[in-house]
Inverse folding.
C-alpha cells in the first residue's frame, strides 16, 4: 500500500464561483504541481453545510461551478482526481474516529475558527459541525494519506489541526499517516476590491474567474486606491493601494517600476488600473477558453464520478490500515 508518488489534497467549499484570491492562494500551485504529485481535489460540500446548512438547494449548481472553475484554471482531469466530499463515506468514518481524541479546547482556540465564527455571527451559538470542521478537514486530508496541502493563509491554522491529528493518531495506535504540510503560495492572501483584508465570496468583493472582459474592466476601474491622491501627479502610497497589491500578485516583474512611478507621481491611478486590466485579461483569457471546452454536456458529471470512485478506493485502503491499527477490523482479525 505504499504510494508511488507524494500526494496533494486540497480543494474548495462549493459556496459560489471561484475568484482571483483562490487563483493566487491555491489554484496556481495545484496546476503547477499536478504532474509532480498525485493530486486529489475535494469539492467540500459537507464543509459548506457547516455554515450554509439551511440552504442545501444551492449545492448541486455550486458543486458543478467549483469543478468547472478548477478545470478551467488548468487542472487536467486525466491526471487529477476531483471528487465530492459527501460521496466518500470513509471521510465520515475517519471524522468520527478522530473526534474521539481531539479536544474541544483545541478547536475553540483555533484562530481560523475564531475569525470565521465572527464573520458568520456564530460566537454565541455555534453548531457542533462548525466547531468540528477542522476535524472533518483532517479526515479530508488524511483519508488519502496526503503529504502536501496547498492553501491560502486563512487555512494554515486548520492544516495545523490535521498535522496534530496525524501525529496523535500515530502515537496512540501506530504509524498510519504522514504529517501533512501546508503549502502557502507567494500571494497567500489577496485583498478584496474594496480594500478589505481578503477577497471572499461571502463579502462580494471579488473578480471571478468566469467574469467577462467588461465586468473585469468595471470592477477594476472602480476599485479603491490611495484616497490621498486627488491629482494624477500627486505622490502616491502604493503600500495602501489595492491595485498595487494586485500588481505585486500578478505583475511581479513590472511592479517595482510601477511602485517607483506611483511614489513620484509619474503614473496616475487610471493608467495603473488600465495596465492591471491587461494583466488580468491575460490570465483570464486561457481560463475562458478552457471553460468552453469543459462546458460540454455530461462532462463535469463524468469527471466527478471518476474522481469520486478513485477517492473511495483510496479511502478503503486507508480504512483498512486505520481499522487494523485501532483493533476494529473485527472479521479480518478472526480469520488470522
Ligand atoms: P467562503 O467565504 O465560502 O469560505 P472562500 O472565499 O474562503 O469562501 P474557500 O473555498 O473557503 O473560499 O477556500 C478555498 C481555498 O482558497 C483555501 O485554500 C483558501 O485559503 C483559499 N483562498 C480563499 N480566498 C483567498 C484569498 N483572498 N487569497 C488567497 N487565498 C484564498
Ligand atoms: Mg473559506
Amino acid at each position: 500500500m505504499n504510494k508511488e508518488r507524494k500526494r496533494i489534497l486540497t480543494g474548495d467549499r462549493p459556496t459560489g464561483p471561484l475568484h482571483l484570491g483562490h487563483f493566487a492562494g491555491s489554484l496556481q500551485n495545484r496546476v503547477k504541481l499536478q504532474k509532480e504529485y498525485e493530486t486529489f481535489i475535494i469539492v467540500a460540500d459537507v464543509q459548506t453545510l457547516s455554515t450554509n446548512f439551511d440552504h442545501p438547494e444551492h449545492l448541486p449548481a455550486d458543486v458543478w461551478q467549483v469543478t468547472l472553475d478548477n478545470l478551467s484554471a488548468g487542472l487536467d482531469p486525466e491526471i487529477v482526481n476531483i471528487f465530492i466530499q459527501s460521496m466518500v463515506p470513509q471521510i465520515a468514518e475517519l471524522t468520527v474516529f478522530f473526534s474521539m481524541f481531539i479536544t474541544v479546547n483545541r478547536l475553540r482556540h483555533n484562530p481560523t475558527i475564531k475569525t470565521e465564527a465572527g464573520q458568520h455571527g456564530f460566537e454565541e451559538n455555534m453548531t457542533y459541525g462548525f466547531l468540528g470542521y477542522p476535524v472533518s478537514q483532517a479526515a479530508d486530508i488524511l483519508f488519502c494519506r496526503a503529504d502536501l496541502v496547498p492553501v491560502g493563509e486563512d487555512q494554515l491554522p486548520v492544516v495545523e489541526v490535521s498535522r496534530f491529528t496525524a501525529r496523535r493518531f500515530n502515537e496512540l495506535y501506530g504509524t498510519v499517516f504522514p504529517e501533512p504540510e501546508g503549502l502557502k503560495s507567494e500571494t497567500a492572501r489577496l485583498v478584496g476590491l474594496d480594500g478589505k483584508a481578503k477577497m471572499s465570496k461571502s463579502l462580494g468583493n471579488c473578480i471571478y474567474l468566469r467574469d467577462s472582459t467588461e465586468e473585469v474592466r468595471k470592477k477594476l476601474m472602480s476599485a479603491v486606491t490611495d484616497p490621498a491622491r486627488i491629482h494624477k501627479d500627486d505622490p502616491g502610497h502604493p503600500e495602501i493601494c489595492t491595485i498595487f497589491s494586485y500588481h505585486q500578485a500578478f505583475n511581479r516583474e513590472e511592479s517595482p517600476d510601477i511602485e517607483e512611478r506611483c511614489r513620484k507621481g509619474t503614473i496616475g491611478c487610471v493608467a495603473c488600473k488600465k495596465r492591471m486590466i491587461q494583466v488580468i485579461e491575460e490570465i483570464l483569457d486561457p481560463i475562458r477558453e478552457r471553460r468552453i471546452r469543459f462546458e460540454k454536456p455530461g462532462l463535469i458529471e463524468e469527471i466527478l464520478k471518476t474522481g469520486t470512485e478513485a477517492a473511495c478506493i483510496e479511502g478503503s485502503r486507508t480504512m483498512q490500515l486505520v481499522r487494523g491499527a485501532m483493533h476494529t477490523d473485527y472479521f479480518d482479525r478472526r480469520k488470522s
The CA atoms of residues 104 and 295 lie 43 Å apart. Residues 13 surround magnesium ion (ligand 2) (CB under 6 Å). Residues 299-325 form the longest helix (27 residues).
